[in-house]
Amino acid sequence: MDGRVDGTEEVDTVRSSSPTGIQSPVMDRNPSPPPDTSDGEEALDAIGDTVYSKHWLFSTLTRLIHMVAEHSEVDSEGQMQLPDDDEEDLCRVWDMAMDKDVAGFLQDFKATDILLGVIAKSRCPRLTEICVGILGNIACFPDTCLTLSQNEDLGAVLLLLLGDTDPPTLLETSRLLLTCVSQKDVCSLWLQRIRQQTSVRYSLCFIMSSSTNIDLLEKVGELVDKLFDIDEELMKSWITAQPSGVEDDGESHLNVASCLLEAAKQLRSESPKGLEVYLHALQLLTTIDEGIQTFAAPDGPGKAVWDFVCDVVCEDLCQPNDLPVVLQERESILVLTFAVLQALYRCQDQWCSKSETSLPLIGTILRVIQYHSEGKHDGTGKEDTKDEQLQSLVEITAEFLADICIHIPKDTVADLVQKGYLTEKTLIAAAGSLVPDFKTSFQHLQSMLSETDPQLADAWPLFPPPVWPQVLLFGFPSERLNEDVTPT
Fold this sequence. Notes:
This protein starts with 53 loop residues before the first helix and ends in a 14-residue tail after the last helix. Helix 6 runs parallel beside helix 9, helix 13 packs antiparallel against helix 14 and helix 20 packs across helix 23. The radius of gyration is 28 Å and the shape is elongated. The chain is built from 25 helices and no strands. It has 488 residues and is mainly α.
């Protein structure tokens, strides 16, 4: 599919550390070893090459089993309080699981079954979060991830946990699932489960549309983006899913595209990285017919997505003073935004006339093309052949501008000139971008310009020949505007 990369070769190896609060920062140090025992025998039963004690780890997990069992016998429905000492020890296990030897030992010790049993009986959100976090660290290693993933009961429970109400638990669950679907040996197994468990789509959509937790939205976005990137059929089924009836309890408004948009709005000012993830997911939707049909529907999310992405481009990314930095450092997000906008532009007749295309957006496209053209030829630009993202940006802006110019009305051209978006410099850049492959679009632009600003239209052939030899080949002087020029 266009715009895709096969990410199954890369594993999400960002281990999770035990947080002291709701957020879960990545560890920037090695975890502390368990406390020394009084007889100093911990060195005799060290796990692999670590200083961690098998006996201490065994004792901690055994205590955990007894603690949960006792609470279930006394009060199976009431919420359980996790004692501070036990929480500290379990968090230490969480940190220890970042070590490959410890993760392997936990797997050999059947820790997956133990933690699954605790999760199933837990009436303590913090305890559930810690157990899922430990499993998430175990899953970071291919061998232990394979064993963990083959546990059918665990797979079912983790997918159901996406419907939990505790943000830290949801964060760790999303991280664990992302880790698993990112590993090629187990990816297909998890995809099969997700396809079969229809509640996954609803749970993720609900999080995206309602959560304000930045870390959670980022991780859920990464998970959804990964699923769409590696499974086109799953993406199609999610974008076309219809509520089955009243029992869906409001599911009808949880359209995937609209939920992606809501999350992107939440992250816009808080997380540029997260925003880019959601823009990529939206861009993937535009690569399938089902996605385009959804955006094109009169009552669909197309207009809202168009307005939002236009604002991101014109107000956040492409301010005149910031444009050089953005073009050098954030080409990837610009490519995504223009790709989404171009796809929506081609189907926007259903909810908006193309003549109403945002003037600042057209002006931004012209400025991006002008900046690249001038930078490329004064020696300050990057080498296109060495920068695939920049080359993609050049191509998408040229195609987008061609789509706009092929039927651009005279009034819009006049407004572009009046507001300073269409000048001699941007016209030169537009010619250099359009003439090689989109001559008809440029002819129409110049035709409209000759009716609104004849002086500017007549002046452009007199500019020193820049970098477009085909302009000289075909000429396009004003007296030939009405001739049928056949593109090569």
